[in-house]
Amino acid sequence: MLLLSHLLLVMTSCWLVSGQSVPTVPCYGPDCSVTKSTTESITGDSTSTTSTTPSTTTFTTPPTTTPPSGSIQRTVVFIYKVTQPNQDMFIRGGIDSAIVRPICQGDQDAETSKCAISIETNSLGTGTSWQKYDAWRIGDTKLDWYGAQKGQGTYNGALAQGTPMAWTTDNPAAPEYQPLNKWGDAHWMVDFDMDCSETEMGWFDVKAFLTNFGWESDIVQYPCSGPDGSDPTPYSGTKNHMARCGFINRFNFNAGSCEIIAF
Question: Is the pTM of the predicted complex or chain greater than 0.90?
Fold first, then answer.
């Protein structure tokens, strides 16, 4: 009788070759085909896998990837606008102080404002087409809302009105040609390296300022086109263009359309 009871216990604890259910605990013995059980549990943001053997228990957590913080990334902004002679375009921007960072309200100094973003503008080439851009980008170290920075360059005595842009075309035969311009004439462009850690989750605001005209009107931005324009923005309602750090951003003056693509 004792031998029969022991045999029944083994049969109910083990998975037999005849097709009985897999046990939820390890089964050992000559009639068992399962010698290790594995369970998964979700803890926080990671999945831990526990493997149980007769004598050891191990835990394996898959590695997680954290986006780099404080990274400097090349960023380009295009704004399409057919302008008149003696008109030059600048952008002002950074982080909106009315909705996103109210701590900046009343700021006037780009060097200390938490709504200004550190940049270093890049050359667009050599020649007369880029003379104004090159003159005005000297000393421009912040994308900000306040106009010319202290010590920012001038052109023939004319002050900068923000971060300068240059008129470009997609025509390779023209001196204003830029290979990143895929759209045509009258696309004003600025190319800079930006500190993405100072943006709002990778996004920032821009608005054009045109000499002999002034600010462009308030913007209600539509969902952006382009392979990298569909990601949701972390905020809305700022009445400015919203651009992504580390991408090519294309806008239309006084309009809500936009396109965002990777380099």
Answer: no
